[in-house]
């Protein structure tokens, strides 16, 4: 029977041997050498992806800041027109997500910079539009161009790290989005001082300047984006051998994996992927609400536009600290379900505060902190937990893309349930968010019970098989008799 510790981590006990390019290292590895390797990878892989995601999040969320700086009036965004401009971004995300993720896996990580250059152009376009219909088109194209960035970065991080190191690194990566949310209001308030310059309103300059920054960053970071592990040049031969041996022993990234449309559809038949979509959707809807409507909600509590921008900062910073601390604890204890449920409980508490709508605005402001903390802990767990239970390279890539891109369908909901006739209570919006978060908690519970049951079944079946299995069985991935699902 496979070693129980490795079973818990969802690892194959019989993996492909390390190729000649990576030596024949086998676990257990030298602990000191692993620590030195991890420090080097941390400094080389995470910072550049973090910077790109910082810019990515600012670009997707700046529409909320532009709205309260005059865009609503100038483009005549009456009724649900603003909401349409918000959700159409996610339509592009939904349509292009999986195809672009396959492009990323096939042609390599530097494709992320090409995508970024393209969405930078669309952001500038948002600042030059004359009618609201043109804004809708720009936002749709922006969503399509951005669709594979987070899922691609998530896959690339997982390609360099083992399963027990993956969550913390991904959460550190996600703090870029949280920090971007924190500084977005402040940056927008500074850019807004250019109101009237060259005949452009403040909201137009928000889009134009941030779009130009995006294009510059995409070009500047192109040489620094790391390739897939098997092609990396920043490690010595010995370090590269150790890194590849660790990755292959962990059963994650597969460099020579092939993909076809039929295989992609087969991967998507795995019920755990769709349960992961539900988990992600349940918290992403609330995270999108926070990003797109928090300035409006805070303004409705009596703050000026500038005060509303500034008051978003502490909410995001507290959410960042909360997510990092508890993600690290989750990874240390090797428990994902419990900490997803912790995030859900905190999120639900904040939503209940907003639904009850206490008279004291400070209490409602406190609810925002709970929402941010809950979202930013549960959201990365919903992605990483399911992805580490997918063994093969393309299956993991397809799973991450499906969870992130179908999960963002929550934005379709959030952008249509925050009805401005209900401002500042937004009772429908917060009530819907609470319902969806409960759906996510149910899906997480389903995965936990399902994976636990399957592990027990595999233990019984494995006892009836030979100790040494046929080498060809390594192609089975997470269907291998020695594979155990992480809980």
Automatic annotation (TrEMBL):
Subcellular location field: Membrane
InterPro entries referenced in this protein's UniProt entry, alphabetically: MFS, MFS_trans_sf
Transmembrane segments: 84-102, 114-132, 144-161, 167-191, 203-225, 313-330, 337-357, 363-386, 398-420, 432-451
Any one GO CC term of the record: membrane
Main location: membrane
Pfam families assigned: MFS_1
Keywords, ordered alphabetically: Membrane, Transmembrane, Transmembrane helix, Transport
GO molecular function terms noted in the UniProt entry: transmembrane transporter activity
Entry membrane topology: Multi-pass membrane protein
The protein, known as: MFS general substrate transporter
Species, as recorded: Cucurbitaria berberidis CBS 394.84
Native organism taxonomy: Eukaryota, Fungi, Dikarya, Ascomycota, Pezizomycotina
């Amino acid at each position: 029977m496979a070693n129980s510790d490795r079973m818990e981590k969802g690892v194959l006990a019989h993996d492909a041997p390390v190729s000649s390019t990576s030596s024949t290292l086998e676990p257990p590895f030298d602990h000191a050498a692993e620590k030195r390797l991890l420090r080097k990878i941390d400094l080389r892989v995470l910072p550049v992806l973090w910077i790109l995601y910082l810019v990515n999040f600012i670009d997707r969320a700046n529409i909320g800041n532009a709205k309260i700086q005059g865009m609503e009036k100038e483009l005549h965004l009456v009724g649900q027109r603003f909401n349409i401009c918000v959700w159409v971004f996610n339509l592009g995300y939904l349509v292009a997500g999986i195809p672009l993720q396959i492009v990323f896996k096939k042609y390599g990580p530097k494709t992320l910079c090409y995508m970024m250059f393209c969405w930078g152009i669309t952001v500038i376009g948002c600042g030059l539009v004359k009618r609201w219909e043109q804004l809708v088109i720009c936002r749709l194209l922006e969503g399509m161009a951005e669709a594979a960035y987070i899922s691609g970065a998530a896959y690339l991080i997982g390609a360099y790290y083992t399963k027990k190191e993956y969550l913390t690194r991904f959460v550190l990566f996600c703090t870029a989005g949280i920090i971007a949310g924190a500084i977005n209001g402040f940056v927008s308030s500074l850019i807004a001082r250019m109101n009237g310059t060259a005949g452009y309103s403040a909201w137009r300059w928000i889009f134009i300047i941030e779009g130009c920054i995006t294009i510059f960053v995409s070009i500047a970071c192109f040489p620094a984006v790391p390739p897939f592990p098997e092609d990396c040049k920043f490690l010595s031969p010995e370090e590269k051998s150790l890194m590849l041996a660790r990755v292959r022993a962990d059963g994650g990234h597969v460099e020579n994996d092939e993909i076809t449309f039929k295989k992609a559809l087969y991967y998507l038949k795995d019920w755990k992927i769709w349960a992961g979509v539900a988990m992600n959707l349940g918290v992403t809807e609330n995270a999108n609400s926070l990003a797109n409507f928090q300035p409006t909600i805070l303004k409705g509590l009596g703050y000026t536009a500038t005060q509303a921008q500034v008051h978003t900062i502490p909410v995001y910073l507290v959410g960042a600290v909360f997510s990092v601390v508890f993600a690290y604890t989750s990874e240390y204890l090797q428990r994902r379900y419990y900490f997803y449920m912790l995030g859900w409980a905190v999120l639900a508490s904040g939503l209940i505060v907003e639904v009850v709508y206490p008279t004291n605005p400070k209490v409602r402001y406190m609810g925002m902190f709970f929402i941010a903390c809950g979202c930013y802990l549960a959201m990365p767990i919903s992605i990483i937990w399911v992805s580490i239970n997918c063994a093969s390279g393309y299956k993991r890539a397809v799973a991450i893309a499906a969870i992130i891109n179908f999960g963002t369908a929550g934005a379709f909901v959030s952008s249509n349930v925050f009805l401005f006739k209900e401002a500042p209570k937004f009772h429908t919006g917060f009530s819907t968010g609470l319902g969806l978060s409960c759906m996510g908690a149910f899906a997480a519970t389903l995965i936990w019970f399902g994976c636990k049951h399957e592990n027990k079944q595999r233990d019984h079946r494995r006892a009836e098989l030979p100790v040494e299995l046929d080498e060809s069985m390594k192609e089975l991935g997470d269907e291998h008799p020695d594979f155990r699902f992480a809980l």
